[in-house]
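Allow me, if you will, to draw on your knowledge of protein folds for a short while. I have a record of one protein: its chain in single-letter code and its fold written as discrete structure tokens. The full record is reproduced below for your convenience:
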Amino acid sequence: MVFSYSAGDDAGDGPTKRHAKHNNDDVVTVSVTGGYTNEAFKGDGDALADPKKPPPTLSSTEEEAIPSPDGKCRLKRNEKWRILKNIAAVSFAFMVQFTAFQGTANLQSSINAKDGLGTVSLSAIYAALVLSCIFVPTLLIKRLTVKWTLCVSMLCYVPYLAAQFYPRFYTLVPAGVLLGLGAAPMWAAKATYLTQVGAVYAKLTDQAVDAIIVRFFGFFFLAWQTAELWGNLISSL
């Protein structure tokens, strides 16, 4: 690309009025070998313009994640029922687990009264729970995600319940520490999960998010509190 510059353009006649004659010394020629792309320039369809690229295709999952103009998410119709099913499953699992644990914990000072074994095991549980609340939930949920944290943490209750068949200090106390370490991430993962699915369900049903989350927590604690009832009934047999 070549640009020509004339000294006559700087005269008082203005840049549009050129002199008829110029000396060779009055002309400066600038050669530009490179170039740049003007991103704001819209081509006029000539051969040098870049062909217009088609818009990228989206998968069905990506299309569902795009909100509609009214701000609602376009999710599958059965998503609402899947959320309710998962809430019921989590609530039932906690009810069954704490039916066993609460019933056993209420009897520790009686069935394992020798040398205060039952009381020591319960103390180990809640001492480990205090430490676990500070450090474990964030790290475990970040590594395993909410779902797998919930599953792994609930399994931490099994050794303590199994140790009741052979109650010794070297079985109950370590099992109680493991239970306490798993209890904090379990409750944190449960609360996180209910909050997340509550927000999604509120979008699906076009309801207030706070009302849905409170409703889900209410249903969960309804099922969880009945564990004390079933546990004591079974213990009384």
